[in-house]
Amino acid sequence: MKGSVEYDGENILFEVSYGNRKTMEIAVHPDGRVTVKAPTETTRDTIYARVAKRARWIKKKLEYFRQFEPSVPKRYVGGETHLFLGRQYRLKLVKSADREVKLKGGYFFVTTPEPHDPTTIRKMLDKWYSDHALSVFQNRLQLCFESVKKLNIPFPKISLRRLRKRWGSCGDSGYILLNTELIKTPLYCIDYVITHELCHLKIALHNKNYYRLLNKYMPDWEKRKEHLEKVGFFPNPIGKAQTGIR
Predict the structure, then answer these.
(1) One domain for residues 94 and 42
(2) How far is residue 193's CA from residue 238's CA, in Å, rounded to a whole number?
(3) Is residue 36 part of a domain?
(4) Rounded to the nearest 5 degrees, what angle is found at the Cα of 227, between the Cα atoms of 155 and 241?
(5) Same domain? 209 vs 106
(6) Do 8 and 95 belong together in one domain?
(7) pTM of this prediction?
(8) Which domain, by its residues, includes 194?
(9) Do both 53 and 94 map to the same domain?
(10) Secondary structure (DSSP) of 77-139
(11) Per-residue pLDDT tens digits for 121-163
């Protein structure tokens, strides 16, 4: 179901999904979406009343996220900067029969027979990011798992994928899926997403018990989350870590 409410001159659009839950949750996403998760039997009037009641809060969050709208798309040309673990590195394109990407002295050295083909450069960088992400994420998962070992959860399997709408997710079977794009963020942000998902393996919902658990193992998680919200290299930087009513 879709709906809208008017508040202070702004038309707030929202989407509603129903499920087997006891409480209603309103979430504002960095891409401008407003979603409502409601118990199955919730009436339309009840949902509209709740959204209207929270309209001021919703508008404030929408205005906050508008500060961080995506920047100009990458062109994959020499001199352009690209992120790795939160640091900017300049592209240095070298024509050669070899194909290689190296990180050295503040530069991404990309060696290829086609240094002026943006598609080639993008594919080479994407592969480099994916290869390094797997190694880094596995290492950080091990460290984060040690810090939450009192949760008494099995060590999860990890998989990587380029996601458009979230940094990570987890499944009932005990796996964690991470967005490859996380490799561009600082280690403390990677640790936040991993710890966030580890806590979800214990408590699935974003309820008070969940946030109590997250606060216990990562007291500064909100600061880390805020940094992720400022990253603008894909449409919706936050998945599980969305801003919602807690």
Answers:
(1) no
(2) 10
(3) yes
(4) 50
(5) yes
(6) no
(7) 0.71
(8) 81-244
(9) no
(10) -TT-EEEETTEEEEEEEEE-SS-EEEEETTEEEEEES-TT-HHHHHHHHHHHHHHHHHHHHHH
(11) 999 999 999 999 999 999 999 999 999 999 999 999 999 999 8
58-90 pLDDT tens trace: 999 888 777 666 567 889 999 999 999 999 899
Torsion of CA 30, 36, 61, 6, to 10 degrees: 120
Closest CA to 24 of 225, 206, 237, 183: 206
- State the total domains in the chain: 2
Rg (CA), the chain: 21
| Shared domain check, 160 and 49 | no
Residue 72 in any domain: the answer is no
- Quick one: tokens of 154? 């099995």
Residue 218 and residue 216: Cα distance in Å, rounded?
Answer: 6
Amino acid at 2: K
Tokens of 13: 């659009």
DSSP secondary structure of 136-204: HHHHHHHHHHHHTGGG--PPPEEEEE--SS-SEEE-TTSEEEEEGGGGGS-HHHHHHHHHHHHHHTT--
Report how far residue 148's alpha carbon sits from residue 218's, in angstroms, rounded to the nearest whole number: 10
- HSE (CB half, 13 Å, CA atoms) of 107? 12
**Cα 230 off chain centre by:** 11
Q: Is position 125 within any domain?
A: yes
Please report which helix (H) or strand (E) contains residue 64, including its range.
helix 55-66
Give the model confidence (pLDDT) of 215-236 as tens digits: 999 999 999 998 888 775 443 3
